[in-house]
Write a structure and sequence with these properties.
alpha/beta, single chain, binds pyridoxal-5'-phosphate, seven-stranded mixed β-sheet, three-stranded antiparallel β-sheet, 14 strands, disordered N terminus
Length: about 375
């Protein structure tokens, strides 16, 4: 097989993500916001945080939002809200990012893995009931890669078995299922604004959305040492505050989030229209409005394809190379739970470039190089 397709391909490296380029169009507004905060002398829990909370809850069609320090904290604080007995079980997909699992463990709870649907990569609702025990208290769903889970089926199960539902929306800002936004199906939607996310800060940041006033008051207090009034603690809380600077940057980017999503969906269309059927592409049907935080394909010999693309100047990622239950840190915690479908996904998945900084020409180039590979195989 000839490995280098053409010199044109080699002329331009296509990065998986370039955060400088993705943020470049916001620099002017960022600088104005930065100067304002610098001159205001107010850095923690000020008007940028409260305005962002209002604007983000409005964007998600949710009643309340609480800004926190990260996506992991958003999940952890949501779980802590319930004060479940230590050792209670939480259902979670077996192929999620490790942070979802860690939030359960840090809350003193036990993750019970449920395999994903091999088509959608999201938790398979048909496999949940068999994992429910007398200790199960909640289902923590993950809208992986920017596609929502089948929330109607999951909510039916939660009602039947009296379980709480929390949504990990770290990869799904603006994603919809049957016209309803991610984060508004369960008690809580937990978001990460890690810089590479569709709504990415310039550092760590996260948020929790909820429709419950009671839960809102509790998590808002919990993120700030359990205060309601300064120096009066009624909860054993934590310090997990979204800071003014990140909130200001997020307010700017939130205005463009729909543009970012539309751009990524256009790039996804190029993949769908041009990529050879040799590659398994993300599942679509009209229930889903996908936001493509990640556009992954699956193929056997994934590692060979990844190397081949790199030789042709195209950078890719693997989300994720090791399933949670195979991580060393999970020894004795969840390594006894068999997850063949998660393994299959982790062994065959490859994430292709799809960011706000990529052009349609670049994505067409990726398709061209991949199709050449397919024709050689
Ligand atoms: C699915 C999922 N959950 C949770 C997180 C944790 O978010 P953070 O890195 O902001 O703590 C991430 C971040 O990558 C994620 O992808």
């Amino acid at each position: 097989m000839r490995m280098i397709i053409s010199t044109i391909v080699m002329n331009e490296e296509i990065q998986y993500e370039d955060l400088y380029k993705s943020n470049m169009s916001f620099f002017k507004e960022f600088r104005v916001a930065f100067d304002k905060i610098l001159e205001s002398g107010w850095f923690i829990l000020g008007s940028n945080v409260s305005d962002f909370e209002t604007e983000f809850s409005r964007y998600c069609n949710s009643n309340y939002c609480v800004g926190v320090a990260s996506g992991l904290d958003a999940l952890y604080i949501s779980l802590k809200n319930y004060n479940f007995p230590i050792g209670s079980e939480v259902i979670v997909p077996s192929n999620t990012y490790i942070a979802t699992i860690l939030s359960i463990i840090h809350s003193g709870l036990h993750p019970i893995l449920v395999e994903p649907d091999i088509r959608t990569y999201n938790i398979d609702p048909n496999k949940i009931i068999e994992k429910i025990s007398s200790k199960t208290r909640a289902i923590l769903v993950v809208h992986l890669y920017g596609k929502c889970c089948e929330m109607d089926k999951i909510l039916d199960i939660s009602k039947e078995f009296n379980l709480k539902v929390i949504e990990d929306c770290a990869q799904a800002h603006g994603a919809e299922y049957n016209g309803r936004k991610a984060g508004t199906f369960g008690d809580f939607g937990a978001f990460s604004f890690y810089p590479t996310k569709n709504l990415g800060a310039l550092g760590d940041a996260g948020a929790i959305i909820t429709n419950s006033e009671e839960f809102y008051e509790r998590v808002k207090s919990y993120r700030n040492y359990g205060n309601k009034v300064k120096y009066e603690n009624h909860l054993v809380g934590v310090n997990s505050r979204l800071d003014e600077m990140q909130a200001a940057f997020l307010r700017i980017k939130l205005k463009y989030l729909n543009d970012i999503i539309i751009h990524k969906r256009k790039l996804a269309d190029i993949y769908y229209s041009n990529l050879s059927d040799y590659f398994i592409k993300p599942y679509i049907d009209n229930r889903y409005y996908d936001v493509y935080h990640i556009f992954n394909i699956r193929t056997n010999h994934r590692n060979k394809l990844k190397s081949y693309l790199l030789e042709n100047g195209i950078h890719t990622e693997i989300h994720y190379p090791i399933p949670p239950n195979k991580q060393l840190a999970m020894k004795g915690i969840i390594d006894d739970q068999a997850t063949p479908i998660a393994k299959e996904i982790h062994d065959t998945t490859l994430s292709l470039p799809i960011s706000y900084s990529h052009t349609e020409e670049q994505i067409s180039r990726v398709c061209e190089v991949m199709n050449k590979y397919a024709s050689y195989e």
